[in-house]
Amino acid sequence: MNIKNLRKIEWWIPLCAIVLCGIGLVALFSASYDSGLDEFKKQAIWMGISIVIMFIVMLIDYKIIIKLSPILYGFAIIALIAVLFTKPVNGARSWFIIGDDLFSFQPAEMSKIFIILFLSYIMSIIQRKGRDEINRISKLAIIVAIIAVPLILIILEPDYGTASAYIMAVVLMIFVAGIDKKYIITAFAIILVAVPITYKFLLPEHAKARIDTYLNPEADPRGKGYNVLQSKLAIGAGQITGMGILEGNQTQLGYLYPKTTDFIFSVIGEEMGFIVAGSVIILNIVIITKAIQVAKGIKDEAGAYVATGIAGIFLFHTLENIGMTMGLLPITGVPLLFVSYGGSSMMTSFIFVGILLNISSQRKNGMFNK
Q: Which of 7, 44, 60, 338 is the most exposed place for a label (fewest CB within 10 A)?
């Protein structure tokens, strides 16, 4: 990568990501203070490692990675199958745990990268004969099959939040690829029919409970509605400037759970207030907007689809995590990227940023600006 290419890079993306990590570390310091700062220390280490990996990925031509995506996709499927044979943690088989909980790895997180890359690779091949090729039933069936395999495996863990993130990314990718409106309308109609049927006959009881809690948390304030009610109390108590680090009632008295992962935004809202919490939302919006601009600015179709898929992942995590802490969306256990505790999430997020930086360095005339 030469100096000229460095000038094209969207440096706002890593800058916003690092600021989010800084806010997350402050929140984790407070949230893990009573447990010896173990999660804070691990997160700081993962942040350093992830930033180094981001720069390494930035220097590797994304086109080379895309060419390797069929192999990477195969590894992702193998990992997603293998994790189903591990011991469940909190009712889900989602982690490979090495040593005495010394290191844990969530394959569904890293698989996001491989699946988006492979799907972009296939979609670009399909459209070599013309952009309308995406609307042929046989080609759409290929795309559906590619995403269906990992999606089913992730649902079996079960991890509905991560599965939903995959769906958001794929929907945006095929939308910008030029899918016909009739397929969008048909899919919407199927969803309207499938949602009540799925809720009634297919969803496990714990998933139904989360939906019921979302709709009416006050019905069971000391049971299933407890977490979301405490989260809303914490965010509201912070007001404009917050109660202060290590001073939040819900955070320090143990009412928020899990406060280092799912409800880290609640910690920020309570102890740092509306100004910092609002800044977290703005920083995420900047990252998503810049990712879309990268997609619009690259001539290569595969690169545009990759950037769009990454924007979809960031968008879903931002909406779902912040939405569930405010009681606006059901609780799914989706982390707030760059902020929530988690090595797999941190590393995956910075790899995404590294890929976006590489794509942005090669921008010329965007495929969406023709």
A: 7
